Amino acid sequence: MSGLTTDLSVSVASLLASTQAMDVTTTNIANMNTPGYARRKVILEESTPTGNDEATTGVDVKAIRSLRDNVLELRINSAMSQQNLSSTVYNSLSAVELSFSDTASGSIGSTLDNFFSSLQALSVTPANTSLRSNVLTAASNLASAFRGTAAVISDSQHQLDRSVVQSTSDINSLLQQIAIANSAITSAQKLGQSSNSAEDQRSALLSQLSGTIDFRTVNSDDGLMLTTANGTALVVGSKAYSLTNSLNASGLNNVYSGGVDITGTIQGGSLGGYIQSRDQTLASMATQLDQFAFQFAQAVNNVQSSGSDINGTLGVALFNPPDTTAGSAAGAASSMKVALSGPSQIAAAALGGASGDNSNLAKLIDLQNQAIVNGSTPTTAYSDMTFSIGNTISQANTNATASENILLQLQNQQGSISGVSLDEESANLLLYQRSFQAAAKIITTIDTLMGNLLDMGVNNPGY
Amino acid sequence: MRVNPNYTANMVSLLNQSQQDETNALQALSTGRRVNKPSDDAAAEAAMVSENSRLAADDQYTANSESLKQILNTADSTLSSVVTILQRASTLAIEGANGTMNQTNLSSIAAEVSGINRQMLSLANTSYAGKYIFAGTATGSAPYIADVSVPGKIDYAGNDRQNSVQIGTGLTVSANLPGSSIFSQTSGNVFDALQSLFTALQSGDATAIEAAGTRISSAIDAINTSRVFYGNTVNELTSNETYLSQDKINIADYQNTLVSSDPAEATTAVTQAEYARNATVAAAAKMNQVSLLDYLK
Fold first, then answer.
1. pLDDT at A456 over 80
2. Which of A31, A120, A364 to mutate to test the interface with B (most CBs of B within 10 A)?
3. Which residues, at least 6 apart from A175, have a Cβ–Cβ distance to it below 8 Å?
4. Which residue of A167, A320, A390, B247 shows the fewest CB atoms closer than 10 Å?
5. pLDDT at A327 (0 to 100)
6. How confident is the model at residue A147 (pLDDT cuts 50, 70, 90)?
7. CA distances from B60 to B69, B122, B232 (A)
8. Do A422 and B56 touch (CB under 8 A)?
9. Would you call B49 and A355 a contact, using CB atoms and an 8 Å cutoff?
10. Residues A102, B48: C-beta atoms closer than 8 Å
11. Would you give the DSSP letter of residue A216?
12. Contacts with A427 from chain B: Cβ below 8 Å
């Protein structure tokens, strides 16, 4: 008699275990597309036998475990940071790149060629007014190409700057949510409850965060601790430490963490990409362009002021003296302008030469083959800039492709551990359905047996 | 070994890749260019900058050659007229010197010589596009003007400088010959010779007329010598233009190898990309059409 009731309670436990297992399967299927979700598995265990009855031990649900590989997730997050950095660099420079394309109309390259061609044309008949006007037009086109390219670079920098500010606020909101998930996990664990959901949530948040910025994680008693690459705290336990923005000397936003300027140490994620494009690639291009404009204008002006114009007057500067602070070329490209008021002011003749003399023009033409821009000829200097921007972008593209492949590989690996498989869940469902049915069958059997027992006295009064 | 049940990320990546390949192949075919922006091939685009600059320079050298040839031809044909009228003056000198003419006849010859002199002045002050071509580099004003203090004397107001014009990398030609090397050169000043003939004819001095005739002959020789400059320069320009047009073809060829796509190759690439894409899409559509769920009743 005690045997039957034990069987009954074991069967009920079995029903409950099967139900719980089916619950897990349902949850798995429901969340198969939820970001950050790791498939769960029910861990069954033989229950501790009561008394000495070895024949009947039931089943217990020991735990419901999320299948995730934390080390793999860290690797995925860092690959994601790298991938987002490269693809952000690739995308953010395309506008600037087009100004340097050989098919771009009004580029510095083509207007530079036109400027020298116009000087060449004038050298045949140096006193010809319409050819002189052509030189002024070509010079003004060249100046406007410099201004235009400088504007494209600076516009791109400011667009990236807005993205930096936007990213900072996105990061702050993620940090808040991670801190909340952190405290949910810690308190669940302290109460001995399951923290699976909160961990799934935090995993999804960390993956989002790694797309935006690179960070380090440290496990502590208070849950996961996040720091920047620089070591300043982002999340400690249930507290998030927000990043802040502050304008630097160039009028662009730097990123601060705990009062420390971390702008230069952000090496990953889209924020890292924005900063790298803004502060390295574009900033260095802007500097190169300014030096180009400054040194070129200076060289032309020097030759101009060593000759005589059509009226025999000493030549004056062809380009506006660059609007810069002493000793620096900054702003030269964006302020480049033709200073001459009329075509007669072009100093084609040598000093004191007649109006039809072209010897000073020859010196201007010679500038095309002289190392006047950072030790290179103007054409080579421009060609170098074209190479530099093209190479930066194509490298970013190569890196993006490579890190995307790595990321995909890692995600596959993660999927093979944590991904929900419908086939597998269906098979499990079948399995638990069968064990549920079997347990239920045992209960009805025991019910019948107990009924038989109870009926014994009624049907066999002699017993 | 458990496989990743979530195949969509792989599939999306493959689909993206095949679409990108197809777009690139189509772009190469439709633009005829393999390189459309610096990041497509940074080294090629950098080389394009200097090749474009060389091409622009060659274009300009060719244009310069053409305009120079026009100016030089104008000067040369002017000098051809100069020689013609000097020959007439020479003939007149021989006629005047043979001693059979009376003073009236000599005076009318003198009048013709005077006309030749005026014509000569006008030829020496020939201009091209408003600029005097025999003035050295002082092209803004007439190089030959009548001397107000000495009647019949013509003074040279130009200079004796020559412009040189670039017609190739490191290659220059002189663009002009100053009047001082043509009309008023020391070995035969045209105006002085004509003036001496005029004076000799007026005075009826046969010896002086003959001497003047000799001076005119040597002036003709001097001018013909000067004309060699124009012929030579025009020849040099013409042969240089031939070189330039060949150089431009070479540059264009090189630019083609730098950035152009081969049409046959591009067509094949499009076909291949299309094929790969079709295969990827077809495979993606077939994947996981069934699961165990379909068989559970």
1. no
2. A120
3. A209, A226, A234, A235, A240, A241, A242, A243
4. A320
5. 64
6. very high
7. 14, 33, 21
8. no
9. no
10. yes
11. E
12. 292
Count other C-beta atoms under 10 Å from residue A196's C-beta. 19
User: How many C-beta atoms surround the C-beta of residue B227 within 10 A?
Assistant: 18
**What pLDDT is recorded for position A458?**
67
Nearest CA in chain A to B47: A383
Binary contact (B140, A98; C-beta < 8 A): no
CA pair distance A423, B47, nearest whole angstrom: 57
pTM higher than 0.90? no
By Cβ distance, the residue of B13, B52, B296 closest to A426 is B296
Residue B46, pLDDT above cutoff 80: yes
The secondary structure of A327-359 as a DSSP string is T--TTTTTT--B--SSGGG---EETT--TT--H
Of the partner residues A354, A382, A423, the one whose CB lies closest to the CB of residue B49: A382
CA distance B77 to B70: 11
For residues B168-194, give the mean pLDDT: 90
Chain A: closest CA distance from residue B285 (Å): 18
Distance from B279 to chain A by nearest Cα, in Å? 21
Q: Do B49 and A386 touch (CB under 8 A)?
A: yes
By CA distance, what is B67's nearest residue in A? A124
Nearest residue of A to residue B4, measured between CA atoms? A416
Structure tokens at A415: 């999927």
Angle A18-A21-A27 (CA atoms, 0-180°, nearest 5)?
140
Residues of B in contact with A416 (CB under 8 A): 1-4
What is the rounded distance in angstroms from the CA atom of residue A32 to the CA atom of residue A422?
8
Chain A residues with CB under 8 Å of B140 CB are: 127, 310, 354-356
pLDDT exceeding 70 applies to what percent of chain A?
A: 95
The residue written with tokens 């600076």 in the block is A154
Contacts of B160 in chain A (CB under 8 A): none
CB contact under 8 A, A358 and B137: yes
What are the angstrom distances between the C-alpha of B123 and each of A71, A106, A401, B129? Answer: 96, 45, 75, 15
pLDDT per residue over A272-327, tens digit each? 999 999 999 999 999 999 999 999 999 999 999 999 999 999 999 999 866 555 66
Q: State the CB neighbour count (10 A cutoff) for residue B130.
A: 11
Return the C-alpha torsion angle B186, B192, B193, B197, nearest 10: -160
Chain A: residue nearest B37 by CA?
A101
Q: Are B132 and B158 in contact (CB under 8 A)?
A: yes
* SS3 category, A326: coil
Strand partners, A349: A308
Burial pattern B135-173, b for ≥16 Cβ within 10 A else e, equals bbbbbbebbbeeeeeeeeebebebbebbbebbbbeeeeb
- Please tell me the distance from the alpha carbon of residue B66 to that of residue A106, in angstroms, as a whole number: 27
- Alpha-carbon gap: B64 to the closest alpha carbon of chain A (Å): 6
Which amino acid does the sequence have at B153?
A: K
B97 falls in which pLDDT band (50, 70, 90)? confident
End-to-end CA distance of chain A: 17
**Radius of gyration for the alpha carbons in chain A, expressed in angstroms and rounded:** 38
ipTM exceeds 0.90, yes or no: no
Q: Rounded to the nearest 5°, which phi and psi values hold at A342?
A: -155, 165
Residues B163, B79, B95, CA angle at the centre, nearest 5°? 150
Confidence band (pLDDT; 50, 70, 90) for A207? very high
What pLDDT, in 10s, does the model give residues A258-270?
Answer: 889 999 999 999 9
Span A121-141, average pLDDT: 94
Nearest residue of B to residue A122, measured between CA atoms: B64
